[in-house]
Amino acid sequence: MKNILFVCVENSCRSQLAEAFGHIHKSKDVAVYSAGSKPSGQVNLKAVVTMAELGYDMGRHHSQSLDEMPAIDYDAVITMGCGDSCPWVKGRIREDWGLPDPKHLSENEFRAARDEIEKRVIDLLRRLS
Fold first, then answer.
1. Which one of 10, 60, 74, 124 is CB 3.0 to 4.6 Å from 91, fit for a cystine?
2. Which domain holds residue 28?
3. How many domains does the chain have?
4. CA nearest 39: which of 72, 70, 14, 73?
5. Distance between CA 89 and CA 115 in Å, rounded?
6. Where are the alpha helices (DSSP H) in the chain?
7. In this structure, how many other beta carbons lie within 10 angstroms of the beta carbon of residue 26?
8. 79 vs 27: CA distance, rounded Å
């Protein structure tokens, strides 16, 4: 089993989108998680709406803390661009994708950010297989 953790500050948008695309595109031997260093307690409505446009229901997603993550070995830990706000979590692969928080973008700009996250998740899953 391969384990992937996506991390951003609020765990409301970027890391939630990455987790969603991880669930969509992963194989059965991959587990996908997301968390935040300072979780907002809710998933961004634009994330919910734009994933629904693709047929994905984020109803089971919730904003959660890194402290709530299982104490397991992660094959990949991906931070979304939160710099020092994201604490170090051990992972075989560690990357910072440097993505700005899209929560204040227009709907079309938000969709472009969503699509960029999907491309990166697909590439990560390919590299882990």
1. 74
2. 2-128
3. 1
4. 14
5. 26
6. 14-25, 45-52, 107-128
7. 18
8. 22
Can you tell me the distance from the alpha carbon of 44 to that of 77, in angstroms, rounded to the nearest whole number? 22
By annotation, the residues acting in catalysis are 8, 82, 86
The rounded distance, in Å, linking the Cα atoms of 21 and 108 is: 18
- Of the candidates 100, 97, 88, the one whose C-alpha atom is nearest the C-alpha of residue 123 is 97
How many angstroms separate the CA atoms of 79 and 7, rounded?
5
Q: Which two tokens stand for residue 94?
A: 């560690």
What is the CATH number for 60?
3.40.50.2300
pTM value is 0.95
State the DSSP code for 100.
P
Task: At 128, list the tokens.
Answer: 């882990």
74-79 and 30-36 strand pairing: unpaired
Query: Which of 42, 13, 78, 62 has its CA nearest to residue 86?
Result: 78
> pLDDT digit string (tens) for 77-104?
999 987 667 777 889 999 999 999 999 9
HSE-CB at 13 with a 13 A cutoff on CA atoms is 20
For 58-80, what is each residue's pLDDT tens digit?
999 999 999 999 899 999 999 99
